[in-house]
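Dear support,

We are seeing what looks like truncated structure output for some complexes. This example has two components. We would appreciate it if you could run it in full and send us the complete token output so we can diff it against ours.
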Amino acid sequence: MNRSDTQFERIAYPVGFGLLVLLLWEISVRVFGISPALLPAPSAIGAAIAGSVPILWGDWVQTVIKGAMNGLWMGGIAGVALALVIDRFAFLKQGLMPVANFFAALPIVGLAPIMVMWFGFDWHSKAAVVAIMVFFPMLVNTLGGLAATDSMQRDLMRTYSAGHIATLLKLRIPAALPFVFNGLKIATSLALIGAIVAEYFGSPIRGMGFRITTEMGRLATDMVWAEIFISALTGTALYGLVALIEKRVTFWHPSQRG
Amino acid sequence: MTDLTTSEAERPAMQKPVIDVSGVDLTFQTNDGPIHALKDVNLEINKGDFVSFIGPSGCGKTTLLRCIAGLETPTGGTLTVNGLSPNEARKARSYGYVFQAAGLYPWRTIGGNVKLPLEIMGFSKEEQIRRVRKVLELVDLEGFEKKYPWQLSGGMQQRASIARALAFDADILLMDEPFGALDEIVRDHLNEQVLKLWARTEKTIAFVTHSIPEAVYLSTKIVVMSPRPGRITDIIESPLPKERPLDIRDSAEFIEIAHRVRDGLRAGHEG
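Here is the complete output from our reference environment:
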């Protein structure tokens, strides 16, 4: 490629392809007479979205804001905090990392019912599932980031007789940020999955996961697809938001300099 | 392994060496067995000296510098800096250290990088600004304060790292092959600048290099080292004047000293 794409092309290509897929989908459903229960046409899904905005909004707030976001910040802060502690005391690494690895291997499907039992049907149990899911990638990425400085940079801090905190604040945390953002990107997608799936195992009568299971039971697949569409949109937007913040904060990193 | 230094008589009797290395040994324990990095190293560096350590890789020149900086601890002998142990001297912020790579933090501007040691050492805001301006001027980087390191050439980055080492005004400057990665022309230019800087600031400088012309051009004292085990094979007091234009490198005196350094290096290799 001998020239970089213009802003217009960067947006036009994916939007164009997306519309093409929707168009083929719509035509296929009509031409082959596919039952709406199996696969509703995009127009039907659009109508479902337009017709149930208050319900979808309520579900979105319940699942994304209350479940996913609360779990994300709790698990994220816990992961980063434990990384800082493990980093400070080397012996903890040997003791805690296997435990953390074990946590990472816990199947969310098995965990969710337990969390519902512990924290109730409302968003608290969903946030707990999300927190456990995002905890591990945040921990591992932060630890990796804290180890990312080379010996020369650490020696430089030693020549200033800088203590642990000063070295952390001035060198190791800034150097770790690109890794932390990588973890955060993984964590945001996990948070959304976790919040939705956790609702399959019991929830109040709202939430995206709740809606997907109940509408599926009624074979109202247009609503199921509407929720899927909105969760995909939300996931993309969250990822984009994190990437945007990352670009601002780690503008100095070779991958961001462009 | 004869110590050919003749400075004992010339040095004023009252003056104590700034850096005093006597009988220093350092053995690293590695998985492949012990490595004798330094063996019986004796050296005195006086105030205002410009001392170069020269030798092939593995001769312990960087290790010796790191010992002086308190970044490595000798396994034998004594080493004092300003009469203190290297560790105490480090805590007293007696020296600035310039590494092989500039090692500027990419998230900080040039000014921010120079400010780094000042922030850690708790200088006041006004003092930080004043000193940053002063040392950037000293290395000819005025006007680059707000640039980021990656926007500068390698030579400019290394100058910024020298400014950073000068910022807190330690009276000793330790430089570990600071220009090793730069091309010849930039290197010449920076050598000239370092000499000017040395004349202006009257600092004591210890400089590690593997370039004979660089060592001879810069130093008042050249320490020739050789490997396995790392040791000093010759110490040459340079008769060159303090004022040194670049073309001094064509003078007979310069060539003679360069010869002696080369002989020393060769003898070390055979021995």
